[in-house]
Design a protein that fits this description.
Blueprint (H helix, E strand, L loop, with lengths): L2 H19 L11 E8 L9 H15 E15 L2 E12 L4 E14 L5 E13 L3
Parallel strand pairs: 1-5
Antiparallel strand pairs: 2-3, 3-4, 4-5
InterPro entries: NTF2-like_dom_sf
Protein name: SnoaL-like protein
Length: 132
């Protein structure tokens, strides 16, 4: 695994979460997700698959959270076709509540011709609930 590969994956992760911090439209994310991505997130409709599952999950995000949100990524480990890391997430809801959570994420991906990842599996699991 080269330093360039590591840098590309780390930059991809940083860009991904900067888009989430701005709560960009779903179309900003789908090109980076395989059409049949295994989207394993909390509060997701398990009857849906691939991009349909992601879209449904993101509708809930947009209905609940106000922009900007904050994602602080740490402990990134990059392997061949995968990355794992921790995320400290903070946001405000439309009803005025503050949410804070520590999440461990693991992504599996293919590498596209341009060298950028295409996420094939996206898993997020709560490390600890720190809602306040």
């Amino acid at each position: 695994m080269t330093d360039t590969y590591q840098q590309i994956v780390r930059a991809f992760i940083a860009d991904w979460f900067s888009r989430f911090d701005r709560l960009e439209p779903i179309d900003a994310f789908l090109p980076d997700l395989h059409p049949q991505v295994d989207w394993d997130m909390m509060d997701v409709d398990r009857s849906l698959f691939g991009h349909d599952r992601v879209r449904a999950w993101y509708v809930g995000v947009l209905q609940t959270l106000k922009a900007p949100t904050e994602h602080h990524v740490s402990d990134i480990e990059v392997g061949d076709g995968e990355a794992s890391f921790n995320v400290l997430f903070r946001a405000k809801t439309y009803d005025g509540a503050t949410i804070q959570a520590n999440v461990h994420e693991r992504w599996c991906f293919d590498i596209r011709a341009d060298g950028r990842p295409l996420i094939t599996k996206y898993t997020a699991q709560m490390i600890e609930d720190t809602d306040k």
